[in-house]
Write a structure and sequence with these properties.
Layout (H helix, E strand, L loop, with lengths): L14 H9 L2 H9 L5 H12 L1 E2 L7 E6 L6 H15 L4 E5 L6 H13 L4 E4 L8 H9 L4 E4 L11 E4 L2 H16 L5 E7 L5 H14 L5 E8 L4 H14 L5 E4 L2 H14 L5 E6 L2 H9 L4 E6 L4 H14 L2 E2 L10 E3 L4 E2 L4 H4 L6
Parallel strand pairs: 1-12, 2-3, 2-4, 4-5, 5-6, 6-13, 7-8, 7-9, 9-10, 10-11
Antiparallel strand pairs: 11-14
Pfam family, one: Peripla_BP_4
GO molecular function: carbohydrate binding
Keywords: Signal
């Protein structure tokens, strides 16, 4: 297939799993659109509606501007690669991507450049959703629809569609998994290795985790440390947890990158009396779960495939179409991805989606 004229990056996981996960199949869309009536006129309208969806066949040329993050973390790097490799799969998509930045002023300037280039659609993962809201508003008011990726802008007027992960659900599913594993353990103790407390996503993950544990009266969270999504901070904060608690039954770590450091601290301390649940879904974590030779027994997904799906949505917007699997003529205003729990039982299904 033709490569986008201005893009970099390498191909990642298979496209079929991404599209089916988010949108279903074109046949399902046709069924939704036409299966509820036998009226001929309605069927004809349904057939027209079902056909007016974005699919893999080349259509109207669309130039997508992609303003992603600085790739200083495994998950963020995967976001950039997923978006770029997805665009390469479409003959009718040209991707114009920025270098990526965690600096607000620099990212605003990059988005201004994309607006001035008059791209058809913008995909933006803001370094700071609140601070970048004005950039989204400017694009929308310039007539360029915005797909807001993950970190949400403060105003719904700043984007046409938001797609991202479920931070609360991530904590909830981690807590329920741990609760079920410990439901028969008397006076069970758990600890939490969180992300940066200045980020709303960290607070949402902790809230979901705490809410899940309320369903298990025998399980009590006895300690919490906030790390920085880095290997070094994970090791330092995990060491503090291990020193503070001589025994506990489970650990939830918000991020698989900082989990590398956490596992180092655990190994150095010679501790293995507890189970560990990770977060985000790195390939390393999944391989460890598959081998079943460490305390790490599960990880809760925060899938970077959302960037690939954002390209799908942007292409559909640029072509004025809906998406396969939905009866509506327009793409949704908001899509929240599910935070699946990956264990030894299902890890082979999810391993191709793991990020490095």
């Amino acid at each position: 297939m033709r490569q986008p004229r201005q893009t970099t990056g390498t191909s990642l996981s298979p496209r079929s799993s991404r599209r089916n996960l988010l949108f279903g199949t074109a046949a399902a869309g046709a069924l939704l659109a036409t299966g509820c009536t036998s009226n001929e006129n309605n069927n004809a309208e349904g057939d027209k509606q079902a056909a007016d969806v974005a699919d893999d066949k080349p259509g109207k040329e669309v130039t997508i501007g992609f303003a992603g993050p600085q790739a200083d973390h495994g998950w963020l790097n995967a976001i950039n690669q997923q978006g770029k490799s997805r665009a390469e799969e479409y003959e009718d998509v040209t991707l114009v991507s920025t270098e990526g930045s965690n600096d607000t002023a620099q990212q605003i300037g990059q988005i201004d450049t994309l607006i001035n280039k008059k791209v058809d659609v913008l995909v933006i993962l803001p370094a700071d959703g609140k601070a970048l809201t004005g950039a989204g508003l400017k694009a929308m008011r310039s007539g360029i629809p915005v797909v807001n990726l993950d970190r949400v802008f403060n105003s719904p007027q700043a984007y046409r569609c938001w797609i991202g992960g479920d931070n609360y659900g991530m904590g909830l599913n981690a807590g329920n998994f741990i609760g079920e594993r410990l439901k028969d353990t008397k006076n069970a103790k758990v600890v939490e290795l969180a992300g940066p407390d200045n980020l709303p996503l960290t607070r949402e993950r902790t809230q979901g985790f705490d809410d899940a544990l309320k369903n298990y009266p025998n399980v009590k969270k006895v300690a919490r440390q906030a790390a920085e999504f880095t290997v070094e901070s994970g090791q330092q904060k995990m060491s503090a947890l291990l020193q503070a608690e001589s025994r506990f039954d489970a650990l939830w770590n918000h991020d698989d990158d900082q989990g590398v450091g956490a596992e180092r601290a655990i190994k150095q301390a010679g501790r293995d009396e507890f189970l560990m649940v990770g977060g985000a879904g790195s390939k390393r974590a999944m391989q460890s779960i598959q081998a079943d030779d460490t305390v790490l027994k599960a990880t809760v997904l925060y899938p970077p495939t959302m960037a690939a799906s954002a390209i799908d949505l942007a292409r559909a917007l640029g072509q004025g179409k809906g998406v396969s699997g939905l009866a509506e003529l327009e793409i949704p205003a908001s899509i929240t991805l599910f935070s699946a729990v990956v264990t030894k039982k299902n890890v082979e299904d999810y391993l191709p989606l793991g990020f490095t």
